[in-house]
Specification:
Layout lengths: L35 E6 L14 H10 L4 E3 L6 E3 L2 E6 L5 E6 L13 H13 L12 E8 L2 E6 L20 H4 L20 E7 L3 E6 L12 E6 L3 H10 L4 E4 L2 H6 L6 E7 L3 E6 L25 H10 L2 H7 L6 E2 L26 H10 L25 E7 L3 H16 L3 E7 L1 H10 L4 E6 L6 H5 L23 H11 L4 H18 L2 E6 L1 E7 L3 E2 L18 H5 L1 E2 L17 H8 L23
Parallel strand pairs: 1-10, 1-11, 15-16, 15-17
Antiparallel strand pairs: 2-3, 4-5, 5-7, 6-7, 8-9, 9-10, 11-19, 12-19, 13-17, 13-18, 14-18, 20-21
Helix pairs in contact: 6-8, 12-13
C-alpha cells in the first residue's frame, strides 16, 4: 500500500530489485468488447514477486490475484476466511491444523491445494522473503498431509496463527510454477503471473503500465470487468490531468494541494479516508558504532550524536507536528506520536499521556542539549559534541534526505530544518530518488531521512522491524530497521507478545513496546496522513471503502472491489460490454513505439510504504 509496507510498507521495505521487463513484446491493444478499468498513481512497482516486493503499490496486484490464509474484512480489517476455512489449535498452542478450500483453480488450469500453502510458507521462510519471513519466525514446520489440510507447528505457544486475526500476510503461490525457481526465487520476475484470484498479472511495461486479465478458471463470483490497467505517471500533477482528461478512471494523489485542485471538476468525485499509515523523520541511531551481533557488522558513517537518546529526543521536541499537518498536509492529517497508527486492530494503539508526551518545546530541547554537554563553544550557532564523547568537538551538522517523488517530504523539510537550527543543529537537505535513498539506508550513510510506512492492521509486523536483528547487516543487504535502533528490552518484549496467549496481556505488552520506542525517539512520527483518492463518476461504480466507511476505495487488503466494480449503467450480472476506456489512442501508440519514461520509486510501508510507501 507499501509506501513501504511492512510499508512500507512498509513495511515497510527498500532494496530496488533487478529491472523487470514486459512479459510480451506486444503492447496491450484495446478490444471493442473489453471492459477495462484504468487507475493511476506516481508509484513504480518495486517487484511483482512476493519474495522481494515491499511497496504498497504491488499489494493491490497481489490482493487481486492471490489468496491469503486469512484475509481482511472490509468493514474493520478483522479476520475473514480466505484459503483457510477452519482452524484447530492444540491445547499447548503450538500446533495449528487448517482446513483449506478445495474449489479454487490457478489461472493456468491447475487445481489449488493444501500443498501450495505448505510449499509457499516453507519457501518464504527458507529463502528469507523480504516481508513474508517476518510472519514465520516461530514456525518450525508446515506440512500438507492431504489436499485440504495444512498442519503448522511452532517452536513456542502463540495465538498468532489461530485465525483470530489476519496475521500471516503471506500470499499463497502455485507450487508447480515456483518450484522451478525454488533455488533462487528472488530472481523470478513473476510476469506474467499465475494466480488463484479473479485476475492475474499479464503484462508490465516499466514506467508505463501494468495490465491484469481475468482468470479464466476463477470459480468465484464473476467480475464485471475484463481487465485492470495501472498507469504510471511522473508526478501527481500528471495523474490529476489524466483523470480530468478521461485517460484514467481512478487516481491516487499524494499531494494535498493537487488533490484540492480536483474538487469541483465535472464528473469527478474526491474522497479522503484514513488508512494504517504514518510519516516519520528517522535518525541513524548508530549503524557505525553499535557492537557486532549475529549477522550485523558496524557500517556507514552516521553522526555519532544520534547514538545519544538525549539528542534524538531534542530533535523530536524541536518538531511541531501540528504545524506540519496544517502547512504540509493542509489540515488533512493527524499529528503523530506512536508507530501504531489510529487505524489498527482494536486496542493495539498506545498514546502517550500528558506526562509521557514529548512536546514541541524549542526552549526545552535547548535545555536538554545544554545539560548533556552539547554546547556552541565557537559561537557559530551550531553545537558541538561534548568532551568524552565519540568525537569531541564535532559540530552537530547532519545530512537530511528527502524524496524527489514525494512532495510532502520536500515541503516539510524547510520547517524541520529551521526548527533544528533553533536548537543548534544544522541540517543539509538533499532530495533523491527512493531507490537511491534505500541504498543510503542500507549502507548507513545518512543522518536523517523522511519516509513513511503503511503497517499491517495487526501491530506485530511493524513492531518486528525495530528488533536488533532487523538492522541492515552489512551495508549492502536490506533490513527493515532503517533507523538501526537496538534495545534488548524492546526485543525481549517483542518475543513475549508473540508467545502470550491472553489477548489483553498481549496488548499491554504491545503498549509498553510503543512507549519504549517513543521515548528512545529513533523515529519522530510526524503525522498520520489519509489516502487521497479521486474517480470519474461517469465511468465505474461499486467502490468499497476498506476499512469502512472512509478507507481505501480499491480495497487494497482484499479482492472485493475487483469483483464489485462495474461500469456506470451496466447490468448487475456479467456480460456487460463496453469499449475499452481510459487510455487514449495517442498513449497506446506511444507505448507501442516503446517510449520509455524514467520513474522514481514512490515508497508508500513501507509496504514501504508500509509507511507510506512501505508496507
Amino acid at each position: 500500500m507499501a509506501r513501504r509496507l511492512p510499508a512500507m510498507i512498509a513495511a515497510t521495505l527498500l532494496f530496488a530489485g533487478p529491472t523487470l521487463t514486459t512479459a510480451s513484446a506486444q503492447s496491450p491493444t484495446p478490444q471493442d468488447e473489453t471492459i477495462t478499468f484504468v487507475y493511476g498513481d506516481s508509484s513504480e512497482p518495486s517487484s511483482f514477486s512476493p519474495f522481494k516486493g515491499y511497496l504498497a503499490t504491488e499489494f493491490y496486484f497481489w490482493a487481486w490475484s492471490y489468496h491469503l490464509p486469512i484475509t481482511f474484512a472490509v468493514d474493520d480489517l478483522g479476520a475473514v476466511p480466505d484459503f483457510v476455512t477452519d482452524t484447530e489449535v492444540s491445547e499447548d498452542g503450538t500446533t495449528f491444523t487448517y482446513t483449506v478450500r478445495d474449489d479454487l483453480v490457478w489461472s493456468d488450469g491447475e487445481p489449488m491445494t493444501a500443498e501450495d500453502m505448505a510449499f509457499t510458507l516453507n519457501i518464504y521462510k527458507e529463502k528469507h522473503a523480504y516481508l513474508p519471513q517476518g510472519y514465520l519466525g516461530l514456525v518450525e514446520s508446515v506440512e500438507a498431509p492431504d489436499d485440504t489440510t495444512v498442519v503448522l507447528r511452532t517452536s513456542e505457544p502463540t495465538s498468532l496463527y489461530s485465525g483470530a486475526a489476519p496475521y500471516m500476510y503471506t500470499y499463497i503461490l502455485p507450487e508447480h510454477v515456483w518450484s522451478d525457481h525454488a533455488d533462487a526465487p528472488k530472481q523470478y520476475e513473476n510476469v506474467p503471473s499465475v494466480g488463484s484470484g479473479p485476475f492475474f498479472i499479464a503484462e508490465y511495461e516499466r514506467g508505463q503500465f501494468v495490465r491484469m486479465e481475468r482468470n479464466p478458471h476463477w470459480t468465484g463470483p464473476e467480475p464485471h470487468i475484463d481487465e485492470m490497467i495501472y498507469r504510471i505517471f511522473n508526478n501527481d500533477d500528471a495523474v490529476a490531468e489524466a483523470l480530468k482528461a478521461g485517460e484514467i478512471d481512478f487516481a491516487y494523489i499524494d499531494t494535498p494541494n493537487v488533490f484540492n485542485s480536483l474538487e469541483g471538476e465535472p464528473d469527478i468525485e474526491t474522497f479522503v479516508g484514513p488508512i494504517p499509515e504514518f510519516d516519520e523523520l528517522a535518525m541513524n541511531a548508530g549503524s557505525a558504532y553499535q557492537e557486532p551481533e549475529g549477522a550485523f557488522e558496524p557500517h556507514g558513517d552516521g553522526h555519532p550524536a544520534l547514538t545519544d537518546p538525549v539528542v534524538r529526543r531534542a530533535v523530536r521536541m524541536a518538531i511541531n507536528s501540528e504545524e506540519l499537518v496544517e502547512r504540509v498536509q493542509l489540515g488533512y492529517g493527524v499529528p503523530g506520536d506512536s508507530i501504531i497508527p489510529p487505524v489498527s486492530i482494536a486496542g493495539a494503539r498506545w498514546e502517550p499521556s500528558d506526562s509521557e508526551r514529548i512536546p514541541w518545546d524549542i526552549e526545552g530541547a535547548n535545555q536538554l542539549l545544554e545539560e548533556a554537554g552539547y554546547t556552541d563553544t565557537d559561537g557559530d550557532g551550531v553545537r558541538e559534541m561534548p568532551p568524552g564523547s565519540l568525537e569531541p568537538g564535532r559540530p552537530l551538522e547532519l545530512r537530511y534526505y528527502t524524496q524527489t517523488n514525494d512532495q510532502n517530504t520536500i515541503d516539510a523539510a524547510p520547517f524541520i530544518r529551521s526548527w533544528l537550527e533553533d536548537i543548534g543543529i544544522r541540517a543539509e537537505v538533499t532530495a533523491m530518488s527512493s531507490g537511491r535513498l534505500g541504498n543510503e539506508l542500507n549502507a548507513g550513510t545518512y543522518d536523517l531521512f523522511h519516509w513513511g510506512w503503511i503497517p499491517d492492521p495487526d501491530p506485530d509486523a511493524i513492531l518486528s522491524y525495530f528488533q536488533c536483528e532487523q538492522r541492515p547487516p552489512d551495508g549492502r543487504t536490506y533490513g527493515n530497521n532503517d533507523a538501526y535502533y537496538c534495545n534488548p528490552e524492546y526485543d525481549r518484549l517483542y518475543v513475549e507478545q508473540r508467545t502470550t496467549l491472553d489477548p489483553q496481556e498481549r496488548l499491554e505488552i504491545i503498549h509498553e513496546m510503543q512507549r519504549i520506542f517513543y521515548e528512545d525517539a529513533a523515529y519522530a512520527v510526524l503525522w498520520y496522513p489519509p489516502t487521497f483518492q479521486a474517480y470519474r463518476t461517469d465511468r465505474f461504480t461499486g467502490y468499497q471503502s476498506q476499512p469502512a466507511p472512509e478507507g481505501d476505495l480499491l480495497s487494497g487488503y482484499s479482492r472485493d472491489v475487483a469483483l464489485s466494480l462495474r461500469p456506470v449503467g451496466g447490468e448487475e450480472g456479467a456480460g456487460t460490454s463496453t469499449q475499452a476506456r481510459g487510455i487514449s489512442a495517442g498513449v497506446w501508440v506511444g507505448i507501442a513505439a516503446g517510449v520509455v519514461v524514467l520513474i522514481v520509486i514512490l515508497m508508500l510501508v513501507r509496504r514501504r510504504g508500509v509507511s507510506e510507501d512501505r508496507a
